[in-house]
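Format notes (please read before filing issues)

Several people have asked whether sequences and structure tokens are stored in separate files. They are not. Every record keeps both together, in the order shown below: the sequence lines, then the token lines. Line labels are part of the format and must not be stripped during preprocessing.
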Amino acid sequence: MSDPVAVVQQYFDALAAKDFAAVAGFLADDLVWHQPGGNRFSGLQSGAGAVNAMIGAMMEISQGSFELALTGPPMLNGDDLVAAPIHFTAQRPGADLGQDGVDLLKVADGKIVEVWLFSADQPAEDAFWGR
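Then the structure lines:
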């Protein structure tokens, strides 16, 4: 499948279903992931393995409660960039996280090759994940 919007839709469907094997299948081996903020996950992640490990750590910290879902249809921006409006939530003892954001994903040859994330309240997300 090479339609960028369809790739992104199926990626988010897999995330919502917590089907992490399917999620991994949408990520290019040389993926570049821009994680915003000033928390333990912030910064540049290089490679699908690093991103999969980061998602696993988020699930561990949130005791499996981390969820992310589209709030509207993904929108093509140019030939290969897709903007996706999202909402994500997570809980851990003593803290709850829930906010909107926009994920911008670059797709090539049916795989997600680069991702930029934008959260509505980055300080709250930083506080939840910690340093």
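For reference, the curators noted about this record: The radius of gyration is 14 Å. The mean pLDDT is 95.
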